[in-house]
Amino acid sequence: MEDDNALEEREEELSSIAAIFPELELDDKEPFRARLEIPVELASPLRVCFPASTDGEKPPVFPTPPSSEDDGHARSGKESSRSELQTHDLCFLPAVRLDIALPHGYPESVPPEFILHATVPWVPQATLNALQQEGEKLWDEYGHSQVVFGYIDFLQQAAERAFDLASGDLAMELPGSMRLMLLDYDKLAKRRKFEQSTYDCGVCLEPKRGSSCYKMARCGHVFCVSCLRDFYTSCINEGDVVSVKCMDPSCGKDPKLTSKKRKQRTLGPSELLQIPLDNALVKRYVNLKRKKKIEADKTTIYCPRKWCQGPARSTKYPKITSFDNYADSDSEPEDEIQALPDIPPHDPNKIDRLAICEDCEFAFCRVCLAGWHGDFVRCWPRTAAELSEDEQASYNYIRANTSPCPTCNSPVQKTHGCNHMTCFQCRSHFCYLCSAWLDSANPYQHFNNPGTSCFQRLWELEEGDNGQGAHFDGPRAAEIAALEVLQADLHAEAEALVDQNENVVIPEHGRARQEAELFAEALNELHLRQQDEPAVRVPDRARGPVPIRELPGMNFRIIPPRRAGIERFIEMALNDEEDAWDSDELDDSDDDFANLR
């Protein structure tokens, strides 16, 4: 009768354990034997150290200097060996297998048999033996009754603490051969748990399974894949690569941080491919980010060919051929672009003058922007007087109608709205009127401060630069005023030349009338050429003859020699150099050209 009761009691306990743990494996040959794997999911991340060397050799331990004490030698060796370790925080570790056997006479007189095996030998055998002995102690504490469930619960709680193998700030050391295995297991276990859970998308606010969601690698915010794809695809197609980051509005914003540069980093291409986004879209994203950094770098040299305008080859921003060679933005904040030191372009001893366009492969000099002439040819940088009409017009428009960002100096023009601006390049907040940096936490304090020139001017130029309110001056007000004075002087000089031309008395007949007409026409021609043609820097005469380049806007005309001589005389007279003029230039030997106009 007692044997029947014991038999029923063992069967009842195993059936109860199988109902609680469906993964329990029963032995077909022996009915009172079972096997169960105890998963190791840690309550808090466990810091694990692996040797840095992959060949299994121990890191070298350097001897202590003779002046040190004996105990310092051991400490020095231990510290040097720890510096050679690679540390990782793991949340999941390989499971521990539990073999259960309920012998005849259990539970009244015979304890159960528990045997532990580590599927991956990360748990020392001594720890496993100690855990096995706890099973028999637990059977005694339970008063020789059913103890299998209690022992499994004991193992689960110990597994959450990593079986007490590491305590406090101390890290657990494991062989380097287990590093990749444990890291892969931890990653797959996290992904498996994530896919089995349910999350509320931060955009559409709908509950969805983890298999349809993505968890941001840096911050841990969760969004559904559909919302991420739609948003990032729209941003990349529109060229707004700065917005390709976590969509949570509070992400990366620390209220205690008031510095001008906050680390709001964009996503890397590897993370975009994991979401997943199309390969072509990610490639466009990477190229746009590189183009953005090149344009923000003031040291970038562009191809002088008008039809190309591509950047020169650079080791700082190499051309991207594959995602494997591209560094993710995890290690490169978007708002902390380190620029190369500013080197004067006219100093050939500090820079390599040879530049090659990465688009058309045109070799040119980065100093004079001419075709490559070799290292031993002396050249000079192009001055502002040599700019083309289009370039000069662009500079004048930017100077007169934009306000520079105080962080990256990018020109910004307002079309409508208030004067609180956000830079499209670096996302800095600044005032459009004075270009002062504004605190993003309270940007409108600047317009409420009576001590500033922008006091109560938040809504000036609400409709853009030509809208209501005072005329836009910006931080370049002094520069604009100087340009207006210069333009007024040029206009007055032109009016004086016109008046001088009108006061010329033209004789009625003969050679004197012809010379007067030539003089008046030459004066007008000289005045028009001074207005229409861009100024050309005259090279030093000691350098030898320099071929004249035809610049945009120059209209070369065939001028009769006699008329040319008059023009030369007028030009020398304006420069107070008429004493050096040779009257033989007005010789009559050019009568054949006298009637040419």
Offer a few descriptive terms.
Ubiquitin Conjugating Enzyme, disordered C terminus, zinc ion binding, five-stranded mixed sheet, 4 domains, two-stranded antiparallel sheet, Herpes Virus-1, alpha+beta, zinc, 597 residues
Please tell me about this protein's structure.
With 597 residues, this protein is α+β, with helices and mostly antiparallel strands. The chain is 33% helix and 12% strand. The chain contains twelve helices and 15 strands. The strands form six sheets. Strands 1, 2, 3, 4 and 5 form a five-stranded mixed β-sheet that branches. The chain has a two-stranded antiparallel sheet with strand order 6-7. A two-stranded antiparallel sheet has the order 8-9. The longest helix is centred in the last third of the chain and has 26 residues, at 477-502. The protein starts with a helix and ends in a 23-residue tail after the last helix.
